[in-house]
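Design a sequence for this backbone.
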């Protein structure tokens, strides 16, 4: 069969959101149209991709496999089309991926001061994607958090940041000045292995609704403040390492220049924004 990239993109949207209505909104199409396209796609593939009930939409085993494969396929196609358009326009572009909560703007300002004619693109790397934007061609360089697969990548350390427990404001640990990992035993933890979410916002929405807790880097907690959530330092949790990452063989020319500038700027920023011992949420005792 010929792969219909439009239907594949529709499938990814539903799989990301686990909801036909929200996926249709993201795609700017009517929900009945999306439902028909997904049913047609399942018929073409000869297998069910979703288990639908009146209350939920879950992936089948085939759907989970296609979801893993599809992200790379759709991202690679989109990146290739962008490069074709850039070549036609004679545009030089540097694309930077960045993990949630990490700010790369200061490095971009310093770099573009030297390369005024360069166009810079940004790719948000969702919290569970890690190095994927570098692997599938969406980005030339990433400002990322470990851990991720470093095989075939050149990695330049930038800094370290502590992790905090994100809990609802009504949670039993919400008024604690700090906790240890043992305090979270028995809590449902939202992470990539137990419950994957398509965005940090979705994860925090679930936590606020009482569907679990999460360990998140301090910069994420600071970047997504909410009155219904509390971020409590976890004193024995290992810090998260931040770094620049580039595919081996790709760290040359403009990419190498950016890595050199960004490493200096981001290390200085990490040192200047080192965490204070005080609590990082409103209303702390």
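Sequence:
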């Amino acid at each position: 069969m010929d792969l219909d990239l439009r239907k594949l993109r529709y499938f990814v949207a539903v799989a990301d959101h686990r909801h036909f209505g929200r996926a249709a909104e993201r795609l700017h199409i009517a929900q009945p149209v999306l439902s028909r396209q997904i049913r047609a796609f399942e018929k073409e593939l000869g297998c069910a991709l979703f288990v639908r009930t009146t209350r939920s939409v879950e992936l089948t085993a085939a759907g989970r496999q296609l979801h893993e494969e599809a992200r790379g396929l759709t991202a690679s196609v989109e990146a290739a089309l962008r490069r074709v358009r850039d070549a036609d326009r004679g545009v030089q572009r540097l694309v930077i991926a960045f993990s949630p909560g990490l700010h790369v703007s200061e490095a971009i300002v310093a770099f573009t001061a030297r390369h005024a004619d360069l166009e810079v693109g940004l790719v948000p790397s969702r919290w569970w994607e890690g190095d994927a934007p570098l692997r599938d061609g969406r980005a030339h360089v990433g400002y990322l958090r470990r851990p991720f697969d470093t095989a075939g990548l050149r990695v330049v350390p930038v800094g370290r940041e502590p992790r905090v427990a994100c809990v609802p404001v009504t949670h039993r640990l919400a008024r604690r000045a700090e906790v240890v990992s043992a305090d979270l035993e028995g809590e449902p933890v939202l992470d990539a292995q137990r419950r994957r979410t398509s965005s940090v916002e979705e994860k925090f929405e679930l936590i606020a609704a009482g569907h679990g807790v999460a360990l998140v880097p301090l910069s994420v907690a600071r970047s997504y403040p909410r009155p219904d959530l509390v971020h409590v330092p976890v004193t024995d949790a290992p810090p998260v390492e931040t770094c620049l990452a580039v595919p081996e063989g790709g760290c040359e020319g403009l990419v190498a220049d950016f890595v050199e500038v960004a490493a200096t700027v981001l290390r200085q920023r990490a040192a200047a924004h080192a965490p204070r011992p005080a609590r990082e949420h409103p209303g702390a005792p």
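The two ends are 62 Å apart (CA to CA).
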